[in-house]
Amino acid sequence: MSCGTESDNAAIWGILHANPHKRHIVTTRVEHPAVYNLGKYLALNGYHVTELGVDSSGMLNLQELTDAIREDTAIVSIMYANNETGVIFPVEEIGHIVKEKGSILHTDAVQAVGKIPLNLSKSTIDLLTLSGHKLHAPKGVGALFIRKGITFTPFIIGGHQEKNRRGGTENVPSIIGLGKACELAKKYMSEEQTRVKQLRDKAEDEILKKAPDTRVNGHKTKRLPNTTNLSFEFVEGEAILLLLNEKGICASSGSACTSGSLEPSHVLRAMGVPFTAVHGSIRLSLSRYNTIEDVDYVIEHLPPIIRRLREISPYSKETKVKEQAGKISARV
Ligand SMILES: *Cc1c(COP(=O)(O)O)cnc(C)c1O
Question: What is the pTM of this model?
Answer without folding.
Answer: 0.92
